[in-house]
Amino acid sequence: MTSAQQPSQIEPVHIIGGGLSGSEAAWQIARRGVPVVLHEMRPVRSTAVHKSGQFAELVCSNSFRSDDATASAIGLLHAEMRRLGSLIMQAADAHKLPAGGALAVDRDGFAAAITAALENDPLIAIQREEILLPPAEWESVIVATGPLTSPALADTIRALTGEASLAFFDAIAPIVHRDTIDFDIAWFQSRYDKVGPAGSGADYINCPLTRPQYDAFIDALLAGEKTAFHDFEDTTPYFDGCLPIEVMAKRGRETLRHGPMKPFGLTDAHRPGEKPYAVVQLRQDNKLGTLFNMVGFQTKLKHGEQALIFRTIPGLANAEFARLGGLHRNTFLNSPKLLDETLRLKALPRLRFAGQITGCEGYVESAAIGLLAGRFAASERLGETLRLPPPTTAHGALIGHITGGHIETIDAGARSFQPMNVNFGLFPPLGARVARGEQKPALCTRALADLEAWTGAALRHAAE
Ligand SMILES: Cc1cc2nc3c(=O)[nH]c(=O)nc-3n(C[C@H](O)[C@H](O)[C@H](O)COP(=O)(O)OP(=O)(O)OC[C@H]3O[C@@H](n4cnc5c(N)ncnc54)[C@H](O)[C@@H]3O)c2cc1C
Q1: Mean pLDDT of the residues in the chain
Q2: Given this model, what pLDDT does residue 384 score?
Q3: Would you tell me how many other CB atoms lie within 10 Å of the CB of residue 101?
Q4: What sign for the dihedral angle of Cα 107, 112, 115, 120?
Q5: Whose CA is nearest to atom 53 of ligand 1?
Q6: β-pair partners for 102
Q7: pLDDT of residue 413
Q8: Which of 22, 157, 339, 380 is 20 to 30 A from 357, comparing alpha carbons?
Q9: pLDDT for residue 433
Q10: How far is C-alpha 344 from the geometric centre of its chain's CA atoms?
Q11: 8-state DSSP, 415
Q12: How far apart are the CA of 53 and the centre of ligand 1, in A?
């Protein structure tokens, strides 16, 4: 097919799910002159949290977080999406509410604007139905059914991907920016200096605790305020190897010291004569080596409490967290293994995935991945190849996390790939030495310049 074809000659892209990602994908595809059929099950059938039949309903907070495109990764993502003609950002800007530096929206006006835009688009046909199995004759499909994908479709996806490749709960351990760890206290070493299949014998960052520090840490964990499960998260998802640390601490004061905080096989590089009573280990989380996760530290502690308590760990006093821990109902794929670079299921490339089900986290990130999935699908229908966004952009960094940036490990619970918000730890570091306070603005400037070059190249390519 070529871009000279009339829309009526082009087979449509079918999108399943009209949430944040599916709505953005539909909009992007139609902007390229490619027809779309958008299948949304609401209001015929709802999820446990949606309340309306509107597209892009915000199920909880009405905040899109910081709008600062000079110093925050999410603000940068907003700016990039605006430049890429995002419907979600257009509607958010049109329905914004006062919220300091954050972009907050009037949720009803926002969803109504998206619904009207999609319903009035001549290239978008809307079908209100639950899809259980995408029919074989649909040549191009985007599955954007989100964290609460209907059970019947989840069964279909699980049959296609394998039992262990679709998770129904996330079990999230905090992730720390490596450059905020104090290496006058912490040191690199693998337990018993084991090299393993891809290691060096010094792969983990170790933070030592004395007995009084350990005791105080356990007390803080036990006293810390926890997040309650939602009513619909009725099956407590604890399974061995993935217990929240506070649940382990409750089972006995020494449990953690014999589990994720065991000190054995490790020698404090700064005080080799002193045996630590307990050790917190952090393991490399992304290929860039900028992010390290706290091994075995999945938790239901409230985010504020986590930051306070984890900063009492020696070496982490000034830690900045790319992600804090959690445990939620969430349907998501083991994407780095299953999806290709353009979000297609390797085993069945006519199916592409978008939104939170791919392993991003949050309204805006889900919409951004919908935007990319839509553009990839439209290019494919038009017989063109769309280059990937540069990894230095927020879009490129986010899709990189989903399709390849994460390092797969086996001892972080059932599966190590877990959902993530966009954050600067996902971006390749700056080549030049830049003063600490100027790094975020420099990353943002680089991202917007590289996005400009990418969109310019895409336009030139389309015109050829
Ligand atoms: C309880 C809860 C609270 C959250 N709070 C926040 C928050 O405060 N801030 C934040 O940024 N993120 C929050 N999130 C995450 C949020 O859901 C996602 O960030 C975002 O909505 C995901 O976008 P999506 O398009 O992937 O999925 P969704 O927006 O959930 O859209 C998926 C759509 O697919 C439809 N669907 C499902 N199965 C089928 C099927 N078989 N056939 C047809 N249609 C189907 C659903 O009805 C839905 O409309 C929360 C998630 C949950 C579960």
Answers
A1: 91
A2: 94
A3: 11
A4: negative
A5: 147
A6: 66
A7: 44
A8: 380
A9: 84
A10: 17
A11: -
A12: 13
